[in-house]
């Protein structure tokens, strides 16, 4: 009898253990609790929105890569008083801007708003790894800036990317941008995962907030490329205001080199930069079978040459793996369409935004399901990307603090804080990734991981 009860107790304990193991949480949900602060946009008279002095002075200056391999750059700015010159003077010596290039001007109206003159000028045939000075507004109130071109594309070229998403223009946004600029790891190019100004959260999509945003981020965007991804706050679809052309303000203001990668739309495209091949996808453009985006991506992935660009990075807005209740499963239909390709082509990392919190996944895939087999759970997969949600730039909508419980096993780390990340490529095998929250000092890392390249060194990073 005693023997029997011992056995019963043993079986009970075993059952309890198995049950716990099956249901236990995944990774870490950070215990860090940010003090409640209201997310409000900085007032229009804030110093960060100041209009540069001088008649028709160029404002909202921003640059992005202008071709496939980093020897061209698109320079954009706005003049408000009159059209003015679209010419850019540039050169490698501060004393003599020996080259010039002429750009083009566009304008748009949105309900009761009329934009300034939006200039876009592409500088081509630039030398790699070179500091260029450039001047815009040359006819009235010239302003001078500089940028450094990337090294020639190659497999072991080190390069440091910053990652920012869902930035907006609140005091938290300002803190995020300052933290990025003060980060001792010195990002050289920003991978921006969508949702820029949040102008559409204001009455009648007040497009003045597109202008203030452009002036706010100029302190970074005029000096280093920001690689743009379109988010839902770029759609600006407002039939109630008579505005039925989606993405109208974004498309006029932010040009990208989509034609260089054979794309037919600015919302999906790719670039090569240093040792990275970066694919930008559009969560808010059609991606079903036979759509232009689907066909472009199907042709694009086999073209990625990991001997030239070992690091395959994807940017998109709506995350596929998100354990926050905010925007839960919104990225599911795109995941169903494309996830098997990401595994087949061994994407290293996918950066997404949209959810105003931070989350990093394990390497998992969920591609075995075929309607009848019931295999519909994420499983560890060494060929799968790490999914990082970094929509924590600090916009007017505030933090997404309500997470699904328990934390799923695929979720390695999650936290509802504002911040930014750095992806620092060392060589073809190793990259160091770190995320910093705004509530800490500039040098403090809240989450980090060594990435091992999926093509050249596909070993388990947790070992
Ligand atoms: Fe979003």
UniProtKB/TrEMBL annotation:
Belongs to the metallophosphoesterase superfamily. Purple acid phosphatase family. It comes from Asparagus officinalis. SUPFAM superfamilies: Metallo-dependent phosphatases, Purple acid phosphatase, N-terminal domain. Its EC number is 3.1.3.2. Residues 1-26 form the signal peptide. GO terms for molecular function: acid phosphatase activity; metal ion binding. It catalyses: a phosphate monoester + H2O = an alcohol + phosphate. The keyword Iron applies. Residues 58-143 form the Purple acid phosphatase N-terminal domain. This is Purple acid phosphatase.
């Amino acid at each position: 009898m005693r023997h029997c009860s011992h056995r019963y107790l043993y079986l009970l304990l075993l059952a309890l253990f198995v049950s716990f193991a099956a249901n236990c949480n995944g990774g870490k949900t950070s215990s860090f609790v940010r003090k409640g602060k209201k997310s409000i946009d900085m007032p229009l008279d804030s110093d960060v929105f100041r209009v540069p002095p001088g008649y028709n002075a160029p404002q909202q200056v921003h640059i992005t890569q202008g071709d496939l391999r980093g020897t061209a750059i698109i320079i954009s700015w706005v003049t408000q008083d009159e059209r003015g010159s679209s010419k850019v003077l540039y050169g490698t010596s501060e004393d003599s801007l020996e080259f010039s290039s002429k750009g083009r001007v566009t304008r748009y109206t949105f309900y009761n708003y009329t934009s300034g003159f939006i200039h876009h000028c592409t500088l081509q045939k630039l030398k790699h790894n070179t500091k260029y000075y450039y001047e815009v507004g040359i006819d009235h109130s010239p302003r001078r800036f500089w940028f450094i071109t990337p090294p020639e594309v190659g497999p072991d070229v080190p390069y440091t990317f910053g990652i920012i998403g869902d930035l907006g223009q609140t005091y938290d946004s300002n803190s995020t941008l300052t933290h990025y600029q003060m980060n001792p790891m010195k990002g050289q190019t920003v991978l921006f995962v969508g949702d820029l100004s949040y102008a559409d959260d204001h009455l009648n999509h007040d497009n003045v907030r597109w202008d203030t945003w452009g002036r706010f981020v100029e302190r970074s965007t005029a000096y280093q490329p920001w690689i743009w991804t379109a988010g839902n706050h770029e759609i600006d679809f407002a039939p109630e205001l008579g505005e039925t052309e989606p993405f109208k303000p974004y498309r006029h203001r932010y040009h990208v080199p989509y034609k260089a990668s054979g794309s037919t739309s600015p919302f999906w495209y790719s670039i090569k930069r240093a040792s990275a091949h970066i694919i930008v996808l559009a969560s808010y453009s059609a991606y079903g079978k036979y759509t232009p985006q689907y066909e472009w991506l199907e042709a694009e992935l086999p073209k990625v040459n990991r001997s030239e660009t070992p690091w395959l990075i994807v940017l998109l807005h709506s995350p596929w793996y998100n354990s926050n209740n905010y925007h839960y499963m919104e990225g599911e239909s795109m995941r169903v369409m494309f996830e098997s390709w990401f595994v087949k082509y061994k994407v290293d990392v996918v950066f997404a935004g949209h959810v105003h919190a931070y989350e990093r996944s394990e390497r998992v895939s969920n591609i075995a399901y075929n309607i009848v087999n019931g295999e519909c759970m994420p499983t560890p997969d060494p060929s799968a990307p790490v999914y990082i949600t970094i929509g924590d730039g600090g916009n007017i909508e505030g933090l997404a603090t309500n997470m699904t419980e328990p934390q799923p096993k695929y979720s390695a780390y999650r936290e509802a804080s504002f911040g930014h990340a750095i992806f620092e490529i060392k060589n073809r095998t190793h990259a160091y990734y770190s995320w910093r929250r705004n509530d800490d000092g500039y040098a403090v890392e809240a989450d980090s991981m060594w990435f091992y390249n999926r093509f050249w060194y596909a070993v388990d990073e947790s070992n």
